[in-house]
Specification:
Blueprint (H helix, E strand, L loop, with lengths): L2 H10 L3 E7 L5 E6 L1 H5 L2 H18 L6 E5 L4 H11 L3 E7 L2 E3 L10 E9 L3 H12 L3 E10 L11 E6 L12 H4 L12
Parallel strand pairs: 3-4, 3-6, 6-7, 7-8
Antiparallel strand pairs: 1-2, 4-5
Length: about 190
């Protein structure tokens, strides 16, 4: 699956939005990829996650014990990707501001792959990596549907992206005039 194939799925689902958006990172962007509009369609989600599982298989060595998704964005892609890998899906969720594995147990040395929806700064993945390492897991890799940094972000482990798509992102105090002229909206799941 190519970058354009992935973006076509987002367009088909009405998930490729243009305007002035406040990203979870706090940065501003003229494009927002509303993955929830893709994930509401099981057949589109299955196509993306099957292709992501194939990439993970091709780029990692050995069995994967668990696929870990950071809540909320990583829940659906982690589950669907795990289905294609034949590995159990678990998730971390925020407790007092930090990711914790609250509902599951893993043995020290468990081989895990973290699956996220869209990566911009990589913060959720880095926090999930830290959580898993604190539990003694071996984080083999992280994977995402779209890497908005186009390979520039460092998440502390190899990052496997189904698509790389660099979209401009700006601090709120450094907006280009055409973006500053549009009222911003915050469509993401996490408050700033």
């Amino acid at each position: 699956m190519t970058n354009e194939d992935v973006l076509d799925i987002f367009r088909q689902a009405g998930a490729y939005l243009e305007g002035h958006f406040i990203l979870t990172s706090g940065l501003r962007s003229p494009v927002f990829l509303q993955k929830a509009r893709v994930f509401m369609h099981p057949t589109l989600t299955e196509r993306l996650c099957r292709a992501l599982a194939e990439r993970i298989r091709n780029e990692t060595d050995g069995a994967i014990d668990f696929v870990v998704g950071p809540a909320v964005g990583g829940l659906i892609p982690a589950y669907e990707t795990s289905r294609h890998l034949g590995s159990p899906a678990i998730w971390v969720e925020r407790e007092n501001g930090a990711f914790r594995l609250r509902r599951f147990e893993i043995a020290p040395g468990a081989r895990v792959v973290i699956v996220e929806d869209i990566v911009t700064t990589g913060l959720s993945i880095r926090e999930t990596v830290a959580c898993m390492r604190d539990l003694g897991a071996e984080v083999v890799a992280a994977a995402c549907i779209i890497d908005r940094s186009a390979g520039k972000v460092d998440v502390g482990v190899p990052l496997i992206a189904l698509a790389e798509y660099e979209v401009p992102a700006y601090p709120a105090d450094a907006l280009p005039p055409e973006l500053a002229a549009i009222p911003p909206v915050k469509p993401g799941s996490r408050s700033l």
